[in-house]
Amino acid sequence: MSIQVFGLPVSRGVAIGRAVLVASSRVDVAHYFIDPADAEREYERLRDARTEVSAELMALKQEVPEEAHAELVALLDVHLMMLQDPMLVESAQPWIATRHYNAEWALSAQLEVLTRQFDEMEDDYLRERKADVEQVGERLLKALTRGTGLSPGALANAGARDFAGEDPLVLVANDIAPADMLQFKRSVFTGFVTDVGGRTSHTAIVARSMDIPAVVGAREASRIVRQDDWVIIDGDAGILIVNPPPMVLEEYRFRQRQVELERARLSRLRHTPAVTLDGQTVELLANIELPRDASAALEAGAVGVGLFRSEFLFMNRAGRLPDEDEQFEAYRAVVLAMGGMPVTIRTVDVGADKPLDRASSQEPRHDHMLNPALGLRAIRWSLSEPDMFSEQLRAILRASAFGPVRILIPMVAHLSEVQSVKQWMDRAREEVTARGQAIGEVTLGAMVEVPAAVLILPSLLRTFDFVSIGTNDLIQYTLAIDRADEAVAHLYDPWHPAVLRLIAQTIAQANAMGKGVSVCGEMAGDPAFTELLLAMGLRSFSMHPAQISSIKQRVLRADARTLQLALPAVLDADQPQQACEAAMRTSSKSGAERLAVSSRTVLQ
Ligand code: PEP
Ligand code: MG
Question: Which PANTHER family does this entry report, sorted A to Z (predicted)?
């Protein structure tokens, strides 16, 4: 039976493939295809892991003290029995033999099938045995990973193997942490669906940066979909279709081809400078998460990096954070790759929905925080870890010797933070210079992400050379909506008049003071806002590389002078979206007619 599940669209396009269900706790299990000729060897790995776990459990049984409760021994016996049950290892074999999954993936696919069966059992006692199967499964997965000598994360990255000839796959999970999502960059998956998450949650942002269709907040998806079901992800409408009928499938295959054609058409704009009809040059920059993303930025025709989310360098490292030299190498790689174009490096912004990894002991413990989005995150965390902050500043300053660098400080709200940042910067400069290391052209900027920063902007701009508006957080903190919570996602509204007025005010003040201003939140890459932001006076946009060409197309068709005439009406409107649509429709008319209609909009 075909079912439709509705969620939030976060990354455009259509993906059609077989569902790979992954439990949130097993998202970092390696997913890659093996050579079909190696299927028997891969299955042997699984059997070897079973032998190892069996020995482990037997040893545990021996170690149980005599006086211990007999229940413990009985439990170990249950685990031993489950381990030998053909439903576990033998039933994972077809995933290897026919689908060419690696052993870890085959086992985790089979565990999903089994746990689903347990969930459906009527008998309470039997249903509770699910936890035992999960524990045995975890032991097997650990044994497999030990056998390879690689971390699960490293293995997941190995997922970039050629998988031509296999059915396309889409990942379905209850939740995926941003750090785990990162491991799926260049992986075997052609689409993602999660039960939880908001449109600008960091998981959604990473999915978007991968430029593959994704839907989040699909609530029941991971419960409804079964392992290996055929599914369609409609990333434009935010719909997941499970087991689509042939006609629907055909319709979506047609749309998929259209999306590809449109992409190919837009990519021809790559080398066209972004200049409006009235001759205003607009800077289109790229947002990146890792140094290797610089190549996508260049391919998309970005004229620099407007946001390097450096915290992604700090993720999935089991608590061992990158030192100054390692960071320096990473920043330098981006600066060199961009060949003289500016690179904006944001200092670490961990916290809220963006933990470093599950094992890290150095980051703030979010599970103990009452309200992580309002807690020790971004610059607050950096200033509470001065050694780490200084190391990062030194690494960035050193990278500036290889090309222009802009340092960006996240979530600034207090002038005291500004003063502290300045002091640490001066000290880092002295330390680098004292070592005889070169420093090149560096400017310092603040992210405008909380309303307080807008209200004290003139004071902030006395210290900072530029500001970059982080609309994702600005909306979150202005409207008091957790950006990662799908329960309040309908209230997360970039068109809210308060949000638009704060953005307009920031752009106007920065322009008036002759300071640089950019938008690097998701609004910059959303074509629905391009004209409006141009009308506000914005000339610098930073977005995922894949969004650059469609924003460029909007810029090329816009006339900033006419748009500006329509702005007051939009900002004063109770319903800015309607006002904006009306105003921008008029601005796409031509010459005198356009001016006449726009001025009427303003006068109304
Ligand atoms: C933002 O808040 O708009 C932003 C760009 O930062 P992040 O999404 O990483 O919080
Ligand atoms: Mg932010």
Answer: PHOSPHOENOLPYRUVATE-PROTEIN PHOSPHOTRANSFERASE
Helix (H, G, I), strand (E, B) or coil at 407: strand
- 359-395 pLDDT, tens digit per residue, is 444 555 545 567 888 888 999 999 999 999 999 999 9
Which residue owns the Cα nearest ligand 1 atom 6? 470
Q: What is the pLDDT of residues 248-286, one digit of tens each?
A: 999 999 999 998 898 888 888 988 999 999 999 999 999
Contact 361, 319 (CB under 8 A): yes
What are the structure tokens assigned to 345, written together?
Answer: 């490096």
Q: How many CB atoms lie within 10 A of CB 232?
A: 26
Spatial contact of 481 and 199, defined as CB atoms under 8 Å apart: no
Predicted TM-score (pTM) of the model is: 0.80
Task: Count Cα atoms within 13 angstroms, Cβ side, for 333.
Answer: 16
Q: What is the CA 361 to chain-centroid distance, rounded?
A: 22
Amino acid (1-letter code) at residue 312: F
**178 pocket-lining for ligand 1 (C-beta < 6 Å):** no
Q: Which residue out of 205, 354, 474, 517 has the highest number of ligand 1 atoms within 8 Å of its CB and is therefore the one to mutate?
A: 205
In this structure, which residue's CA is closest to atom 1 in ligand 1? 470
Distance CA 16, CA 232 (A): 5
User: Is the shortest distance between the CB of 473 and ligand 1 below 6 Å?
Assistant: yes
**Rounded Cα gap, residues 474 and 413, in angstroms:** 12
How far apart (Å, rounded) are the C-alpha atoms in residues 467 and 200? 20
Six token digits for residue 123: 């008998």
Span from the CA of 290 to the centroid of ligand 1 (angstroms):
15
Atom nearest to 202 CA in ligand 1: 8
Q: Whose CA is nearest to atom 9 of ligand 1?
A: 309
DSSP assignment of 92-155 equals HHHHHHTT-B-HHHHHHHHHHHHHHHHHT-S-HHHHHTHHHHHHHHHHHHHHHHHHHTS-HHHH
- The answer to whether 446 and 378 are in contact (CB under 8 A) is no
**260 membership: H or E segment, kind and range:** helix 246-267
Q: Which domains, ranges and CATH numbers included, belong to the chain?
A: 3-23+156-265 (3.50.30.10), 30-148 (1.10.274.10), 273-595 (3.20.20.60)
Q: Which ligand is nearest to the CA of 307?
A: 1
